[in-house]
Amino acid sequence: MSKTVSVVIPCLNEEKTIQQVLDALYRQTYPTHLMEVVIADGGSTDKTREVIANYQSTHPDLELHLVENPKRIIPAGVNAAILASTGEIVVRMDAHSIPQSDYVERCVAGLEDGLGDNVGGRWDIMPSDESWIARSIALAAGHPIGVGDAQYRHSSTAAVVDTVPYGSFYRSLLDKVGLFDETLIANEDYEFNTRIRQAGGTIWFDPQIRCQYFARPNLNRLARQYWTYGFWKLQMLRRYPSTIRWRQFLPPAFLLGLLVLAIMSIFFSPAIYVLLAVIAMYSLVLLLVGVQQWLNEKQIAYVLGVPLSIATMHFSWAAGFLVGIFSPKVKPEES
Fold it and tell me: What HEC string does the chain produce?
């Protein structure tokens, strides 16, 4: 363990979790003197910057830097932090994800073993609070029915994959593929990994590299999050159409099918029965997932909460995706 490491974190109004993130990084098994943490703040109006300043003064042995992110969006923050960093290896982290104590060590080991050009791990989805809906959302966000074959959310098998959350890579990789795309408000990690794969690189998923990710606390914020995901996924797919996966295609196809059936039922009455049958089957599947979680977790509220959460994820993502089809194309050079 001799490589210098820069942990880069985009941040905006994260006073509730930034202390936990810094504590987790301070407790890393990787040598502290070989690590630096660079946080790019997008103009926080809460106490985030105060928490960071206090941490700098009370933990002088951790090299911690705060830089500005005037564009306020995640990819611009990641880039600002990268450009201000100096480590041989870059570890991308988030301000509301808590890395396991050996997170950095395992990332570095995976890179040094040549397992991938970008090495990342698994999210353990956690509720933002103890309300029944927040806990339901956390379960839904880690269930295959909710997220399909996104291995980083539920897989226990190491493998070559199409993407990982955050990830770690040698700084030299940036000379080949460039920085993160600042024209994308979301899906910037997937787009970055796509460029790596197109350049002949490999994305390696190691389920032993783990961090806790805090899901949205309520359905309203979950809907906004997944609408954004769907909208910006479409913008990315316009550039890389061959990268679409079945988990990304199904929600918009399903919503579009429901809309077509609803319109057809106005002119062709049997279509209403098909529409109702499809909705009934979909609802039954989600209800069975809710019952499964109730039996596993002994919380009857999950019978309602988990289906509501999964449906919110599916339909919000699908709506954002379909709206994105009719929006102007965002070009990479516009950044």
Answer: CCCCEEEEEEECCCCCCHHHHHHHHHCCCCCHHHEEEEEEECCCCCCHHHHHHHHHHHCCCCEEEEEECCCCCHHHHHHHHHHHCCCCEEEECCCCEEECCCHHHHHHHHHHCCCCCEEEEEEEEECCCCCHHHHHHHHHCCCHHHHCCCHHHHCCCCEEECCCCCCEEECCHHHHHCCCCCCCCCCHHHHHHHHHHHCCCCEEEEEEEEEEEECCCCHHHHHHHHHHHHHHHHHHHHHCHHHCCHHHHHHHHHHHHHHHHHHHHHHCCHHHHHHHHHHHHHHHHHHHHHHHHHHHHCCCCHHHHHHHHHHHHHHHHHHHHHHHHCCCCCCHHHC
